[in-house]
Amino acid sequence: MVLSCDSRNHIRTYNLPKVKSKNFTPTTLKKEINPSELLWEKPDSWISSKGSSMRLASFVIPYSGGSGDLSVIQLVGTGGGIESNVNRWRQQLDLKSQSWEEIEKNIISMEGMLGSYNVIKIINQKIESAFLCAIIPIENHTIFIKLSLKSVGIIEVEDDFMKFCSSLNIPS
Predict the structure, then answer these.
(1) Residue 144 maps to a domain
(2) Contact call for residues 88 and 76 (beta carbons, < 8 A)
(3) For the domain that residue 127 is a member of, what is the CATH number?
(4) In contact, 146 and 93? CB cutoff 8 Å
(5) What does the pLDDT average to over 94-123?
(6) What is the pLDDT of residue 18?
(7) How many helices (H) and strands (E) does the chain have?
(8) Which residues contact 49 (CB under 8 A, 6 or more apart)?
């Protein structure tokens, strides 16, 4: 106590910046999603494709510079969390890992049918490749949506990507 008090009568106040949490609060969902239960709205130009067995859905996303590959997967819990997933994606694009503080500056918070979710763009101009990723937490699972494409296509497909992610829903 002696160290924390002094003889002067003054009040100190501090302002701390609000930090986006590494952890996210999931919305209520009582079961794992079956691919046939997941509903969405997609642009007519998106073409359903066959992906790996891990994917709930796959699409070929045409744009003026080519086409991208969109995957929708579901992992248990947080799937490793935002920081580890973003850094894994960055490594896939030959980019260095970032600290949570650097990552959170680039996170876009969105609201969709399944609740709040995060979107991040990861671009490597040197190899002209990019990912547009969404992380959607639900009760005991997390849905990850990743669109892989050339960096020049991001601006062209970004609005459709956001609408798609926001439209994801599970009928009750």
Answers:
(1) yes
(2) no
(3) 3.40.1000.10
(4) no
(5) 96
(6) 44
(7) 3, 7
(8) 58, 59, 60, 69
